[in-house]
C-alpha cells in the first residue's frame, strides 16, 4: 500500500475518532442538561461520573445530608453516572411517591439480576409481580402472636449477649466492637427464627449463620464499590454480573436451607417458629426457583441511655416481679421506644428510599417525571430538617413523647420506609433491639471511651455503619 493511501486511511480514522468523540460529548452534554431544560434545581455533575464522586470517600448518609443542606428545596436533580435522578425532600412528596401513587412507583431502582438468585430474589430487591406474592406469603412471619413467641428466644440471646459482655469486656478487659457483638446477636436470632438452628455465636460456638453475617457486615473498598454499583449503577452491575452475596455464601445458604428441609422430611418434625416452613409454602404458591431464599438482616445501634431509661426498665422488672421482660412488657417501655426512635431518626440506617417511575407522572404543577426515571426520597433531608425536629443534630428522645411503632409522624419519620414497600421485618427488628437494650442497660452503664467520643460513618458501607465498628465502655451497675 502506497503512502498516499495510508495517509488517506489515517485521515479517515482520525475524522471518525473525532466525530465519535464529539458525538459522545454531545450525548453527555445533552444528558446533563436534563434538569436544566425542565427548570429543576440540580447538583452540577462530573462528566461520566455524574454526582457519584462521593462514592468511597464519604458515606451515603453524609452525601444525602450534605445534598439537602446545599439544596434546601422540595426536590433536586442528581445524576447517577449519566442517569438523571430526581431526589424529593419533603414529607408531602414522600407520601405521594411511597403511598398515594404507589402504583406508579412499585419497584426499586437497584440492580436485581437473576444471575444472583439470593441477591435478586429476596424481598428487598425482587420486583413485581413476584414481590407482591412473596410479601403476602411472608407477612404471617411477623404477626404479633408469632413475635410474642420469638421474644422468648430473643431474650435468651440477649442474656447470652449480657454474659459475653461480662466475660470478654469486664473480666478479660478486651476491647469492645459494637458492630461485631450485635451482629453476633442478630445472627444467633436469625439462625433460629429462619432455619430453626439453636447455636450461640455469642457463646463462641461455630455458627453457620455467622459465616454469612460476618461476610455481610465487613465493608472494604471492593465490596463498597460493588454495592455502590448495585444500588446506584444497575446497568454497570448487570454488565459485570455483580452479586449481593459471594458464590460461596450463596451456596452455603442453599445447602443449609435444603439440609434443614431434608432433615424435617426424615424425622417428620415440623416447626412453625422458623421461616423454613413459610419458605416452603412460598415456593409452592409463588413458584419461585428452588434456589431462591430470604435475607433477613437487621442493623442495630446502641443509643446512650440516660438514667431515666434505666429506671424505666428497673421499675418494670420490679413491678412485674420478673428477671426478664416479655413481649408485652417491653412494648410498655415508652421511653425505651422513644430512645430507639430518636436514634433511628438521627442515625437513619438507610439514607434514602428509591423507586423507579413506571409511567410518565406529574409530581407537581411544575414537575413531570418521565417513564423510567429513578426517584429517591431523601430521608436524611426530612429527619434532619429543623422545621420538623428543632436542633436536629441533638439526640432528644423527648421528641417522641408517645411513641408507636406504626407512627410515621405525618411522613417525617421514615427509618423503615412507608407504604406497601415498608420494611416487613420492622417489628421483628425493633423487638430484637428492645430485648438486647433492656437487659444490657439494666446490667451495665454505657460510657464513651474518650471525652471527645465521635462515631464516624464508614465510607465503604452503603447502609449506615460505624467506621471501625465503634466501641464503648460497659460499667457494671452496683
Précis, in short:
The protein is α+β, with helices and mostly antiparallel strands and 478 residues long. The protein is 48% helix and 8% strand. Strand 4 and strand 5 (368-369) form a beta hairpin.
Task: Give a written overview of the molecule.
- This protein is α+β, with helices and mostly antiparallel strands.
- It has one domain (about 35-475): Cytochrome P450 (Cytochrome p450).
- The chain is built from 18 helices and eight strands.
- The strands form three sheets. The protein has a four-stranded mixed beta sheet, sandwiched between helices. The protein has a two-stranded antiparallel ribbon with strand order 4-5.
- A hairpin with a 5-residue loop joins β4 and β5.
- α7 runs parallel beside α18, α8 packs across α9 and α9 (about 210-215) packs antiparallel against α12 (about 245-265).
- The protein is globular, with a radius of gyration of 25 Å.
- The protein starts with a helix and ends with a strand.
- About 40% of the residues are buried.
- Residues about 285-305 have low confidence and may be disordered.
